[in-house]
Design brief:
- By secondary structure, the chain is an alpha/beta fold.
- It is about 40% helix and about 15% strand.
- α2 runs parallel beside α11.
- The longest helix has 18 residues.
- The chain is globular.
- The mean pLDDT is about 95.
């Protein structure tokens, strides 16, 4: 397993991480992802560690905390062999302060996560979303206190826009607070918006991409085909409206290109989609998920080989989408504004 530095930090992470959103299955939304129990989670962790996948990502809202609890059970006795990543910010209770990135909520959320995970430190603690109602100085000060207390080691953001992230990094530099070294971001062959603003920012500021939903919200599993109904077990039946939207023509054009590369390489569609992402700038790790052992082993086959330049060009062309302003305008002046890829 290849390891890469996480942004500009000295910390390294495996290029594949395991997403624990499938642990627990509480509620209709997370039930559609999966419902792995304690025993199943231990088996998944066994397989991951055997393959060199040592980073596991969760969040306090995944199955109302059950995902973190199950992960903690699965890594018990081998905490020193794993990297634990989790997130907080979204509403986790009914009280007025059970949401956001206030000092109150972040400290409360971190303490609760530590208890559920059965550990005394979190390797990577990320804000699940931007809180526009809390000053960034308060947010970073609280994270600084948690770092100094030894409860978290690195900090990251998720689902921030470019100005959110840059404002936070500037405040961190101004006051000597920890910088975000990770941006847990949506990025896939059918979702390349990350390249417009967040990727150039990551290159300039040393923020590594921790990619969530690298298979396009379940659309690049190899089971979605032109003119065919959704597979019976697809989570898209319940979650499609909550994720990124795209036209059928665009999706199937990308799938056609993936099928062609699959024919050339003998690799599966998801393996190719993941391998393409690993060739992109700033990408530190891809968060892969799996309902079962078979899916996990399939995704693990995305590493240890590389697409050719021609295959990458084919996928790039098929997945290209119209740029929003001002990015299309900047592309017209590439001499002074070169694209990141």
């Amino acid at each position: 397993m290849e390891y890469r530095r996480l942004g500009a930090s000295g910390f390294t992470v495996p290029v594949l991480s395991f997403g624990c959103g499938t642990f627990g299955g509480k509620g209709d939304f997370f039930q559609a992802w999966g419902s792995t129990d304690d025993n199943g989670a231990r088996r998944i962790v066994d397989i991951c560690l055997e393959a060199g996948v040592s980073m596991f990502d969760s969040a306090d809202i995944y199955s109302a905390g059950e995902s973190e609890r199950i992960l903690g059970t699965a890594i018990k006795g081998r905490r020193d062999k794993v990297i634990v990543s989790t997130k907080a910010t979204f509403r986790s209770g009914e009280a007025a302060n059970d949401v956001g990135s206030s000092r109150f909520h972040l400290i409360q959320a971190c303490e609760a996560a530590l208890k559920r995970l059965g550990t005394d430190y979190i390797d990577l603690f990320q804000l699940h979303g931007f809180d526009a109602l809390t000053p960034v100085e308060e947010v970073l000060s609280a994270l600084d206190d948690l770092v100094r207390a030894g409860k978290i080691r690195y900090v990251g953001a998720s689902n921030f826009s470019g100005w959110h992230l840059m404002k936070s990094l500037s405040a961190a530099d101004r006051y000597g607070y920890p910088r975000y070294v990770a941006n847990q971001t949506y990025y896939s062959l059918v979702g390349r918006d990350y390249e417009w603003e967040l990727m150039p920012l990551g290159l300039d500021q040393g923020v590594g991409a921790v990619v969530w939903s690298p298979l396009g919200w379940g659309r690049l599993t190899g089971k979605i085909r032109r003119g065919a109904p959704l597979p019976e077990l697809s989570r898209l039946h319940k979650t499609a409206d909550n994720g990124p939207q795209m036209s059928d023509d665009y999706l199937y054009g990308v799938v056609d290109a993936l099928d062609e590369v699959a024919r050339q390489t003998g690799k599966s569609v998801p393996q190719i989609a993941l391998n393409w992402l690993l060739r992109r700038p700033t990408v530190a790790t891809l968060i892969i998920g799996a309902r079962d052992e078979e899916q996990l082993r399939q995704n693990l086959g995305a590493v240890g080989w590389s697409l050719t330049a021609d295959q990458i060009a084919l996928l790039d062309k098929a997945s290209a989408a119209p740029l929003a302003y001002p990015y299309w305008h900047q592309r017209g002046f590439a001499e002074r504004n070169p694209p990141p890829v």
